[in-house]
Amino acid sequence: MQKGKDSPADMTIPIPGNFFISLLDKEGFVERFPFNKLVRNDINGLIVIMISSGEGCLKINGKEYTAQAGTLISLLPFHLIENHYVSDNFSCNYLLYRFDFMADFPFVLKSEISERIGNKPYLILNPDEYEHLNEFYSFISKQYNRYDHPSREEIIKAQLFSFIAELSFIYSRQTLRLSTNRQDQIVDDFFRLLHAHHKKERNLSFYADKLCMTTKYLSQILKQATGHSLYRWVSDFSLQEAKILLKSSEMSVLQISEELNYPNSSFFARFFKKNTGMTPLQFRNSKRDHATKEK
C-alpha cells in the first residue's frame, strides 16, 4: 500500500452543528474521509460509524484495520482516521454529536467508557449487538427528519441517550486491550501523551524523554507502526489546533502563538506557512471567504 508524504495533514472532519446523523454510501464517506488523507476529529464530541455493507481499509490513530459489515468505529476528540480503501458497495450509519448537545445528560458517556473507546476505537459487533444498536440508530434517524415536530430536539436527545447507553453497554463487556508487544505499547503511550500535551509541547525530546528513549528511536517506531514520523505527528497536532483557533475564534496571531507555546508570532507564522503554504491570516481569511460564499 502506498503511503503519503511525511508532511502534516490539513483535513478536519466537517462540523455540521451540534448533532448530525446520516446513512453514507461510498461517495458520502469519501467526501468526509478522502482517500489517503489524515483526518482528525476536531469537535468536542463523539463520532460513531456503523458499517452496514461492503468493506474497506482504514487507519485509526495510526493502526490499520479491515472494515466490514458489523464493524463499529467510535472516534473521540483528537482521534485520527485515514481512509485507504472502501468498496463500491460500502455503506455505513454515521452519527456525530457534540458533548454540549447532551449537557442535560452530563453522565451520558462515563469516563470508564471513554477510556475503553480510546483503547479500542474499532470493534466487530456480533449480530445481536449490531441489531440492538441499529434499532436505536433507526429511531433517532426517523425523528431527526421530522422537522415539523415541536419536540424534535428533545426526543432526539432522549433517543440519543438510549443509543449511547447501548453503546456503553457493548463497551462495558469489552476487555481492555493489552498490547501484544513493546512497540504497540510505545505507540499507545505516545498518543496518550500527545493528546494531553500537544497544545504546549512541540519539543520532540519531551515525548521521547517521557517514554525513556531517544527521539530517533521513538521516530523509528512511529514510522514503522503508523507510516509517519514523530515530527509529523507533533507538527500535525499543533497545526490542527492552530487552524481551529484561526477558524473559530477572534484571537490574534500573537495570542494563538502564545496559546500554543510558540517562541513568538513570527516563528509561528513561518512554521504555519512552511507547512500549509499560507500565512495564518491568509488561512483565516480564506476560510471566512469560503463561509461567506456558502451563505
Describe what you observe in this structure.
With 295 residues, the protein is an alpha+beta fold. The chain has 2 domains: 11-172, Jelly Rolls; 182-294, Homeodomain-like (Arc Repressor Mutant, subunit A), CATH 1.10.10.60. Helices cover 48% and strands 19% of the residues. The chain contains 11 helices and 10 strands. The chain has helices spanning 26-32, 111-119, 127-144, 152-172, 182-197, 204-210, 215-226, 230-248, 253-259, 265-276, 280-294, and strands at 11-12, 19-25, 38-40, 45-53, 55-60, 63-68, 71-75, 80-86, 91-98, 122-124. A 5-stranded mixed beta sheet has the order 1-3-8-5-6, with no helix packed on it. The protein has a 5-stranded antiparallel beta sheet with strand order 2-9-4-7-10. A hairpin with a 2-residue loop joins β5 and β6 (63-68). α3 runs antiparallel to α4, α5 crosses α7 and α9 crosses α10. The longest helix has 21 residues, at 152-172. The chain is globular, with a radius of gyration of 20 Å. Mean pLDDT is 86; it is low at 1-10.
In short:
The protein has 295 residues and is of the alpha+beta class. It contains 11 helices and 10 strands.
Taken together, the total number of domains comes to 2
What does the average pLDDT come to?
A: 86
How many strands appear in the DSSP assignment? 10
CATH class of the largest domain: Mainly Beta
Say what the CATH topology of the largest domain is.
Jelly Rolls
Q: What percent of residues are in strands? A: 15-25%
Tell me the series of helices and strands, N- to C-terminal.
EEHEEEEEEEHEHHHHHHHHH
Q: Major sheet: size, sense and barrel closure?
A: 5 strands, mixed
Find the structural class using helix and strand composition: alpha+beta
CATH architecture of the largest domain: Sandwich
Can you list the strand order of the major beta sheet?
A: 1-3-8-5-6
